[in-house]
């Protein structure tokens, strides 16, 4: 089996790059810290005898050769970018458990038929650059390269520029044959922990729709401007935020709806806000319900803007439909958990993952492990070394299963 | 009378310092642009034969001597800081009409008994540093000097540091006897324009209460976190914003209530907001109603925070009670408008002004002129040269009236 301590030590060492006082991690995509983390991963992989290549989206692949290197590789991996106040496990666990599988193959001098690769996917979080999973999306042909490279952060810097700047704009074309893809990840939700189950066998991922909304009213003085003459863009946004929440609540079970980002202009205490920009994140495992939520949102936002005399720019910037994972890969994960005697259950992923896009071009499976209080996207995110180890062992067996025949 | 063209030209020249593409002005308090504008005012005043002094709050006084310079001066003035997206008239009109009065006294070789001064008051807007009218407040003994110098912007820079940096931390003690104070200002509201009236004789200013609220919930992932487990600080803020609006609407006539500034943490699309900071601005001409609004606000914010499981830090950071201006000064303004044949009416100021604080230590009056569509704190703020001229003529006569006996 894989080495629990080595995996944990690698996670802790990587977590220092961008580590925060509260024990979390702030390592936004394509920052200097992202570069440092990529460099460290590359060094570790080369030390493990791998050859590392980088594609034009900055995706990194560390290859351990197989008996037949003309065969497509079995790939493991996830991302190393984090949220602004993220944790030390989201994403990086999937990358470093991939490396741990390779180190374990080395320990036991195991020769696989297929090459085995550990990978980093660029900008999975969608926090600095929207949408999420951009680079795995390009790999899967969901987005074209130009779209991927032109995604810009709130300061207008593009992924293409930032990849150049940190030296990770690779030579390789984006996209190549993959025998199977596996991603290990913390659950980021409360189910496994509450049910005291070690392994989540991920069968599906829920669908997502992301929106950007700009409301424009009229800036005016907070003192002498009578209430009834106002066009207050923030008041409009406030009412929409409440409706976004209502749509989530009335489409239970399983619907989620969130306004996570909001900016006010000019953002001055005694100025009625003239413009507000905000985002909406809608999720549901059932595409029909997700469409119904979309229709409800469009109706209610238009109504509020209209009633309040606000101009509205409303745009769906991302739609990622529900994903069923590959039956063979899912079975490999379940079998590995059973063989090792871990408690396990089937589970639907609430978050998007690079695996969701890779699933379009290769048989794909995911392994979930519990995280403390179900909390992620928070500096307090935490997971137990033994659970992380269990997930890594399941990953190891599932990969062996796919790489050796 | 005063010189319409000269006043307009000075306003336009000053408006270039921080002038924006949309024809507005962005000249935040104690920035390099504020320094440039102060330097230009100082130069103009010295060219007009004045002696300029600066006090420890950076307030600037340009003195034209009278027959008896042991008598306290009649002071005119306002502020030259602007909102982030402000106009070319708010504040600076009161400063430059003061200068225009001095230039006109020179043109006609008029000797007044009392010295006459044109003044700039530091950080009136309250946008970069809260609260508003800090430096006139120190002059009036409402705030002590230490409080004034320690006001910090959102980056933590204090007024004291920034005054040093731009070279306007003067030698003079803050506060000295004033025979009478007059401030000319655009109305910043719609009344004069709608009634086609040229001069507003300001009898009172309404009261204000400013608050800062921080709501703390729990950051979590927007995907796998079930709706009913969430502690969404932005949803809480949204509900409070709607209640702030309701309190304004249910305390008509005359109540105003505004949330102008709001910041979300960590402000990422797929993270449930863990913390939101925002401000509330309440106004009413009647102090009892303002107190009732305050009580309603405290009740409803506590209730929402409690219902939603959010922690709340709620602080009233500023209370400026309604201000009655000096009967003698108000009469001087009304008389000057009548003598010049300008249409005029009594009016209550919706905005706070430096005059509101100076009124505590000296007889004080204000002159309002119309502004286009009643719009201020907006780059589209505009006023007619002839109205600005009329206000300046009224200021001139009111000052003469107080300075010559
Ligand atoms: N796993 C994860 O946090 N992905 C970010 C994309 C999403 O919001 O689902
Ligand atoms: N006149 C003016 O805009 N003052 C700013 C302070 C306030 O908000 O009333």
Automatic annotation (TrEMBL), chains A, B:
The keyword GTP-binding does not apply. Transmembrane segments: none annotated. The keyword Hydrolase applies. CDD domains: M20_bAS (cd03884). GO terms for molecular function: hydrolase activity. Pfam families: M20_dimer, Peptidase_M20. Residues 206-304 form the Peptidase M20 dimerisation domain. Keywords: Hydrolase. PANTHER family: ALLANTOATE AMIDOHYDROLASE, ALLANTOATE DEIMINASE-RELATED. Belongs to the peptidase M20 family. This is Zn-dependent hydrolase.
